[in-house]
Design a protein that fits this description.
Number of strands: 6
Number of helices: 5
Bound molecules: FE2/S2 (inorganic) cluster
Strand order of the largest sheet: 4-3-5-1-2-6
Structural class: alpha/beta
CATH class of the largest domain: Alpha Beta
CATH architecture of the largest domain: Roll
CATH topology of the largest domain: Ubiquitin-like (UB roll)
Order of helices and strands: EEHEEEHHHHE
Shape: globular
Distance between the termini: 20 Å
Largest sheet: 6 strands, mixed
């Protein structure tokens, strides 16, 4: 099967790569770019642990083909922190509100939480729960996750952009 060339910006860095048409975005991110912060928790597009942002909205990267992001901008959990390692407000709120236990769901949950805060800058508990209903957590019972999302909103995270703070630099995968 032939490959197709894609150009995509991931966490502020532009990549030009040849990919097979069947390659999933999550596999491209993890295996080609080494972005293993984006994890795979199921093979049924149910768990949401693979959630990233594509052109500013959350998507389950296991349900998107790499060729579909050609020309697009992807932000992963690894692109959220500032250049000096400063946590994104939603990352900080998850940390401060004990919104994780094993942490497996956390990258996808945080990416989804940022997306929901862009729609609901000050979400009610019901809106927060609805916003993360596509993301499964086996550990926390969701209570502290909802609390963290509301705390992040109070800290102004709803206004925070999901674009990475790092300056974009030219780059490419081998
Ligand atoms: Fe479970 Fe993508 S890995 S939804
Ligand atoms: Fe373990 Fe959510 S913290 S799955």
């Amino acid at each position: 099967m032939g490959t197709r060339r894609i150009s995509v910006t991931v966490d502020g860095v532009r990549y030009d790569d040849d990919v097979e048409p069947r390659t999933l975005l999550v596999h491209y991110l993890r295996e080609r770019l080494g972005k293993t912060g984006t994890v795979i928790g199921c093979d049924t597009s149910n768990c949401g642990s693979c959630t990233v942002h594509l052109d500013g909205r959350s998507v389950k990267s296991c349900s998107v083909l790499a060729v579909q992001v050609d020309g697009g901008e992807v932000v992963t959990i690894e692109g959220l922190a500032g250049p000096d390692g400063e946590l994104h407000p939603v990352q900080r709120a998850f940390h401060e509100n004990h919104a994780l236990q094993c942490g497996f769901c956390t990258p996808g949950m945080i990416m989804q939480a940022i997306d929901l805060l862009s729609d609901h800058p000050d979400p009610t508990e019901a809106e927060a729960r609805e916003g993360i209903e596509g993301n499964l957590c086996r550990c926390t019972g969701y209570q502290n996750i909802v609390r963290a999302i509301q705390a992040a909103a109070q800290a102004g995270a709803g206004a925070a952009a999901s674009v990475p703070a790092q300056p974009a630099t030219a780059g490419g995968a081998a």
